[in-house]
Automatic annotation (TrEMBL):
The keyword Signal applies. Residues 1-24 form the signal peptide. This is Uncharacterized protein. It comes from the Eukaryota. It comes from Fragilariopsis cylindrus CCMP1102. Keywords: Signal.
Length: 265
């Protein structure tokens, strides 16, 4: 058993050494040459590369991954600060849990007085609905409301149902139901290297410790896979590189080895 574990660790070290110097999730076109421009990567390439890297690591025990130190290399730039200003502006965005469908999720994304979207899935593997929404400020109360067209999801709801955003960012509906923002690693994130909400990152837990990560960069959408490791560490397999980050629950952020910080809204 010990020999198998050491062999697996050796494989992991070789893989990480081969990927050394590649930074995480930088979409800026004027970034360092070691970075990968995500806008130039096709969805098919993303999925193929993710599958390949996942296959390489399939024989590595979860304990070996969890014991990795998430420390930046010596030549890495200083980590940027979480973008709380933008997070506050979009506090009604996020990944929510519906009390009536606790195994599923709701993703609310959009700016005030502009067309946005809500993505719903009632359970893992279930049908995914993308519906239009518009958030605005109530002139009488000053509260933010979110008007959704749920007719394709539940015809009985009609073309308009309005939820009120509470002080803690939850969404309250006329029937008393509430969508509560997820407090764990699951969330809608601001990328420190790109403007939100046109560029946004979605993290959704999957089976076991795995997580699904969706990279939305304008009209480009990439799905990649990752692992939620113990002690707040997260590993994501991306085209041509494997990225390690540190999730800070209190700060609501993920800090990557290249200095990029994702801030949770």
């Amino acid at each position: 058993m010990t020999a198998q574990f050491l062999s697996s660790v050796a494989i992991l070290v070789i893989v990480l050494h081969a990927l050394h110097g590649v930074t995480a999730f930088n979409v800026a076109s004027n970034s360092r040459s070691a970075n990968t421009n995500l806008d130039a990567v096709s969805r098919r390439e993303a999925l193929v590369a993710s599958a390949s890297s996942a296959a390489i690591l399939a024989g590595v025990p979860m304990e070996a991954l969890a014991d990795l130190d998430v420390k930046p290399p010596q030549d890495a730039p200083p980590a940027s600060e979480p973008d709380y200003k933008t997070a506050t502006k979009f506090y009604f965005n996020g990944v929510f849990r519906d009390k009536k469908h606790p195994e599923g999720y709701r993703i609310v994304a959009g700016a005030l007085n502009k067309n946005g979207s809500v993505t719903l899935q009632d359970k893992p593997g279930g049908k995914v609905f993308d519906i239009p929404m518009k958030a605005k400020t109530d002139e009488k109360t000053g509260k933010i409301t979110v008007d959704m067209n749920l007719s394709s999801y539940r015809p009985e709801f009609g073309s308009s149902i309005v939820a009120t955003v509470t002080k803690d960012g939850c969404l309250k509906f006329p029937d008393g139901n509430q969508w509560i923002k997820d407090k764990g690693v699951a969330g809608l994130y601001i990328d420190g290297f790109a403007p939100y909400p046109k560029y946004r990152r979605v993290v959704i837990p999957s089976k076991g410790r795995k997580v699904d990560v969706t990279m939305i960069s304008g009209k480009q959408v990439f799905d990649v896979v990752g692992v939620d490791l113990k002690e707040g560490k997260i590993q994501v397999d991306f085209p041509g590189k494997q990225c390690l980050g540190k999730f800070n629950r209190k700060a609501g952020s993920i800090t990557w080895l290249d200095g990029n910080v994702w801030t949770k809204v």
